[in-house]
Amino acid sequence: MGTFALHFRGNDRRSCFWAEDYARNVFATLAPDAIYIASGDHNTFPPIYLQRVLGERPDVLLADKYGYFEEHLFEGMSGEARRHRTSLRGDARRRFEEAWLLRRHGARPAYFTQKRDMSDLPGKTVIPVGILFKVIDDTPEAKADALAESEAAWNRYLWRNAPGESMDFTARIIVSERHYARGWFHLLRGESDLALAEFASAVSSESAIKQMWNNAGSALAEYGLLEYAVAFYEGALEIDPSYTPALRNLAACYLDLGYFENVRSHLEPVLREDPGDRAALEILAAAYEREGRFEEAVNVHSDVARRFPEDPTPWVEAGRILLEKAPNPEEARKLLTRALELDPRRMDARTLLAGLDGGKPPSVPEMGPDVALPEGMEGVPNPFSLETPGGLSLPTLPSPRPPEPPLPDPLRGPPR
């Protein structure tokens, strides 16, 4: 009893309402009959408690209760789709499952706890609504409706604890995410200074994780605030210098800012760890192209084609460069034709070929087995590499030059 009495005050959570209020505010955000896809314990288990124990919001489908989707959610999935799902691993499988569920239940409003790229669901986008992210049609009208919905949600929220009160680890994560969501809300309203202040608050907690720094940087980059985005990505790398998403995102920011040496220096550790990191390779190719180093850009696309032999995109991109930037129309024709063999629906390849043929629709002849990409990787040459000194190897780089003007510190506010 003495030990109990000694430690009671430090462990008394009767006045800590952060998790319960978070769950109730989630439910206050969700439209009727919603699908809710969570991403962490703190935004998963409190809603489960409210629904299963207290009987609140039985209309809501809590799609991910244990860090994975339960098998009964995929009833009605075709055999082909099931086989494809089984072949996938990690993030690729997760994205496939999410996309299938959203298509399957297309009439139900769907919400994520994290922003999600919707390239696998054409015509859809994700927009912040309160403390969540809602899947909507990618139209101005739907976005305007979502902004109004978000404003209404923020006005409904109730937080019984004052800032700084009853702060355990879970509470700090919830408060950090609340600031992050509020930052997105201000970005949508065009209030960049208020957004910056919220994002700075989101990462100022001692429990701020590298993902929060990275996510805040991505939000700012999406709205063109690149110098600030760089500062947040650097914050993520202060926590973990090898954090691949921040390295890639930082390289993409430097690409848009025109600091190409910085692009390569931040991609170098990513590609050393994983030479097949497609996102990093595509950023590298874009950097070479913008520098006017067209042969190196084509060779990077060639490496992507070798690693992803069923994808026509690297063939299209290399053909475009050879057509528009480093004129070699005959080689461009071969690459674009190969892209259409892989996917006859690629209108970008058809448009480029039509330009070669004076506007005539392109034909797609059989090119024979000699141009088919081999299945294996070991010892396989790049399918359309150009002869350049050094091939695809990354050059030895000097220390990156800091951009001018100096990047602002987001915790000090914008430069004056």
Word description of this protein:
By secondary structure, this protein is mainly α. The protein folds into three domains: 18-154, no CATH class; 161-256 and 409-416, Alpha Horseshoe (Serine Threonine Protein Phosphatase 5, Tetratricopeptide repeat), CATH 1.25.40; 260-400, Serine Threonine Protein Phosphatase 5, Tetratricopeptide repeat. It contains 17 helices and five strands. The protein has a five-stranded mixed β-sheet. A hairpin with a 2-residue loop joins strand 4 and strand 5. Helix 9 (210-222) runs antiparallel to helix 10, helix 11 (244-257) runs antiparallel to helix 12 (260-273) and helix 13 (278-291) packs antiparallel against helix 14. The protein starts with a helix and ends in a 60-residue tail after the last helix. Mean pLDDT is 85; it is low at 365-379 and 388-416.
Mean pLDDT: 85
Q: Calculate Rg over CA atoms.
A: 25 Å
Give the total of beta strands.
5
Task: Report the total helices.
Answer: 17
Give the name of the CATH architecture of the largest domain: Alpha Horseshoe
Query: What is the strand content?
Result: under 5%
CATH topology of the largest domain: Serine Threonine Protein Phosphatase 5, Tetratricopeptide repeat
Task: Label the structural class.
Answer: mainly alpha
Let me know the largest β-sheet.
5 strands, mixed
Write the CATH homologous superfamily of the largest domain: Tetratricopeptide repeat domain
